[in-house]
Design brief:
It is a single chain. The chain is mostly helical and 192 residues long. It folds into two domains: 2-157, no CATH class; 160-192. The protein contains nine helices and no strands. The protein has helices at residues 2-22, 29-41, 47-80, 88-101, 104-109, 115-118, 120-125, 130-157, 159-190. α1 crosses α2 (29-41). The radius of gyration is 18 Å and the shape is globular. The two termini are 34 Å apart.
């Protein structure tokens, strides 16, 4: 499905899907950008434009979460945080990191799996300057998008090997992934 969307919609598709991912909606960048990389390998897309489209999408998708944090703050997190898989403890952790390392924390978090999706809300709650937040979001996301696109390029060069491996383990990988995600959700929602 993601491949079809990226192939049909090109850079706009990459931008829109990365915006959705950055708006805390489960659509992993780890699937989107490597797909663009595979299409780069096939000569159907450009590396630089793919990474740029992904980074722009990340910025667009981060803005609503930032403002939700800015105007909703901790009360919003306490009431609705579990639906975004965020706890007050997560916000406290982000606050400690910002106090220890400064606003560069937002840049670093943009290059960390999972954390990168959810850092916008704490940035708003902690009242990070919007211009700085958007700049760090763009630069960190651009690096992340280049990396994942490169992974897709390499995957595309060796696709037969990966497809053979996937077919040997595909059911087991999916089952283990779903069980782990289910356990995570159960623990996360139970602790609320």
């Amino acid at each position: 499905m993601i491949r079809d969307q990226v192939a049909n919609w090109g850079y706009i598709g990459v931008c829109v899907m990365m915006a959705i991912e950055s708006a805390n909606i489960p659509l992993p960048s780890e699937a989107i950008m490597p797909t663009a990389g595979i299409l780069v390998n096939e000569g159907k897309m450009d590396l630089h434009l793919s990474a740029l489209a992904g980074a722009v999408g990340c910025v667009i998708g981060s803005i609503p979460s930032y403002f939700l944090g800015l105007y909703g703050g901790r009360p919003f997190l306490q009431k609705y945080g579990k639906w975004f898989l965020l706890k007050e403890k997560d916000l406290d952790t982000a606050d400690k990191w910002v106090k220890k390392y400064g606003d560069i924390t937002f840049f670093i978090c943009r290059m960390l799996p999972v954390v990168r999706t959810f850092i916008s809300f704490p940035a708003g709650v902690l009242k990070a300057p919007l211009g700085m937040f958007l700049l760090y979001t763009f630069i960190g996301s651009l690096i992340w998008c280049y990396f994942l696109t490169w992974v897709g390029i390499e995957f595309g060069k060796n696709m037969e090997v990966f497809v053979d491996l996937w077919h040997k383990f595909d059911i087991a990988i999916v089952v283990v992934g779903l069980v782990c995600f289910g356990l995570y959700l159960k623990h996360h929602l139970k602790s609320e």
